[in-house]
């Protein structure tokens, strides 16, 4: 059984003391494929070191996280553009809009989001979207730029069924389902049970959003198995089928 964690921050300082053991625990649980989103210029080196050390397990994305967007957005975007030119990546991400903490740089976030979508299309790469308190803003932009070249993953999806249907209506788009689906009062379970496994990929977003029974603790990719078990329960499918189809979906969208 091969599971794919489509979104994990393996380079995080939260794993400084046991990074190697953490990756080994994931592989031991069947999580053989680990896709890492970039945050900004500070995360590139650590991410690429892991790709070099674990080329059969770790796969990198390149993008500017909306929470790293500020008045100097052009400088960060230039770094992203250069990285995309110099190296091979599986996606442009994570990118998007985050209005939870601060709305000061909304215009810059929208600019960065649009620009990185443009680059993804030029390179025939999927986008991996971060959305927090910004469904309306993100969907409006996606509606505008939607065409045959738009493809990607709506990372850490926590929306309602109408939003889910809107997103998968873009054809080559998947919903990233993580630990929140195991939270009793989050309501995501009620949405997932109405969806087809063919529209889903699995993720941890580690070290954040650990699934039950680890909620509130540091998350890690080995806990993806808990997410897969919950999705299997909700969709009345064998865990092996959930692993196989979500991994197949990840291969389709990432190309590897």
Q: Can you put this structure into words, describing what you see?
A:
41% of the residues lie in helices and 14% in strands. With 256 residues, it is an alpha/beta fold. The protein has one domain: TIM Barrel (Alpha-Beta Barrel). Helix 1 (19-28) links the parallel strand 1 (3-5) and strand 2 (31-36). The radius of gyration is 17 Å and the shape is globular. The model has no long low-confidence stretch (mean pLDDT 98).
Write a brief caption for the model:
By secondary structure, the chain is of the alpha/beta class. It is built from nine helices and eight strands.
CATH class division: Alpha Beta
Largest sheet: 5 strands, parallel
What's the CATH architecture?
Answer: Alpha-Beta Barrel
Based on CA inertia axes, which overall geometry fits? globular
- Strand percentage: 5-15%
CATH fold node name: TIM Barrel
**H/E series, N to C?**
EHEHEHEHEHEHEHEHH
**Strand order, largest beta sheet:** 4-5-6-7-8
Keywords:
alpha/beta, globular, 256 residues, TIM Barrel, three-stranded parallel sheet, exonuclease activity, five-stranded parallel sheet
């Amino acid at each position: 059984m091969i599971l794919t964690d489509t979104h994990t921050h393996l380079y995080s300082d939260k794993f400084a003391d046991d990074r190697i053991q953490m990756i080994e625990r994931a592989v031991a649980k069947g999580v053989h494929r680990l896709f890492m989103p970039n945050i900004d210029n500070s995360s590139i080196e650590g991410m690429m070191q892991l790709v070099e050390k674990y080329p059969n397990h770790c796969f990198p994305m390149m993008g500017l996280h909306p929470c790293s967007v500020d008045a100097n957005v052009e400088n960060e975007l230039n770094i992203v553009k250069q990285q995309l030119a110099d190296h091979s990546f599986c996606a442009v991400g994570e990118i998007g809009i985050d209005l939870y903490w601060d709305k000061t740089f909304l215009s810059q976030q929208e600019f960065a989001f649009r620009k990185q979508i443009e680059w993804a299309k030029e390179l025939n790469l999927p986008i991996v979207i971060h959305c927090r308190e910004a469904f309306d803003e993100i969907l409006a932009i996606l509606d505008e730029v939607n065409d045959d070249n738009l493809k990607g993953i709506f990372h850490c999806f926590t929306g309602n069924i109408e939003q889910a249907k809107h997103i998968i209506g873009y054809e080559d788009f998947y919903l990233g389902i993580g630990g929140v689906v195991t939270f009793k009062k989050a309501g995501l379970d009620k949405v997932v049970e109405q969806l087809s496994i063919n529209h889903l990929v699995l993720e941890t977003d580690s070290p954040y959003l650990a699934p039950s029974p680890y909620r509130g603790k540091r998350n890690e990719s080995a806990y993806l198995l808990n997410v897969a078990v919950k999705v299997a329960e909700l969709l009345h499918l064998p865990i092996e089928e959930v692993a196989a189809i979500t991994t197949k979906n990840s291969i389709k969208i990432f190309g590897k």
